[in-house]
Amino acid sequence: MSSPKNLDEVRRLERLAFRGWRALESHDVQGWHLRFSGGYTKRANSINALDVFTSTDIEAVEAPFRERKCRPVWRLTPLAPVEMADQLKARGYEPIERSLLQRCPLHDGFRADPAVEISPGPSPAWIEAFAVHSPVRPEHRETMERMLRAIAQPAGFAFVQHEGRPMAMAIGAVEGDHMGLFDVLVMPEARRQGLARRVTESLYAWAWQKGARFAYLQVVATNAAAMPLYAAQGFRTVYEYEYLIPPAS
Prior knowledge:
The chain has helices at about 5-20, 60-65, 85-90, 125-135, 140-150, 195-210, 225-235, and strands at about 25-30, 30-35, 45-50, 75, 95-105, 115-120, 155-160, 165-175, 180-185, 215-220, 235-245. By secondary structure, it is of the alpha+beta class. The protein folds into two domains: about 5-100 and about 240-245, no CATH class; about 105-210, Aminopeptidase, CATH 3.40.630. The chain has an eleven-stranded mixed beta sheet with strand order 1-2-3-4-11-5-10-9-8-7-6, sandwiched between helices. Helix 6 links the parallel strand 9 and strand 10. The longest helix is centred in the N-terminal third of the chain and has 17 residues, at about 5-20. The protein is globular, with a radius of gyration of 18 Å. The two termini are about 35 Å apart.
């Protein structure tokens, strides 16, 4: 079992990530942090524990999702009651993704690549590339744009283009001594050129200048393409979490 000290660190990183990639609406219910964003992304439409002493009343916690006619998505971190996963699985809820929150120390050895543009807000070209390559469904486009503009400040929208075509992109959000790294994308035609490294390390250099001394990210545990890069940059897993969804009705 995680120690109280470790759980305090989990809680701190959770709150940083909530603010780094903001939901359009959020509420706290019986020790759970509920996030709503019109169904766009699991993370921004999820049920998240704030403390190990949270309620296990599934119906009460899910009620705000049911009222909005949204599917409840449980995101279980070490802060969730230990029995929660078993209770949900007994009802037929299915785990759909195991993910890792990883962190690495930053240093002044990370260098900005001159080909990587970093802007405080998303340009129209950045938004269009993100919508196409993320990809974002048409009905979620407006929600996506609102969420991008709500990212914690200072934010850095990294972008690489070649002859007017998008090549790679990512987002950094700095709060205090941490930078959250979100949505690293390299377009299919630009892969195997080191662009993921160049974009992320440019953001680390940018964040260092903003006073950040650590970077954190959330990555799917089976993402074999990204994990070696993050490990080489110094990222290590702080904790794991998984998503559980109800059976189809």
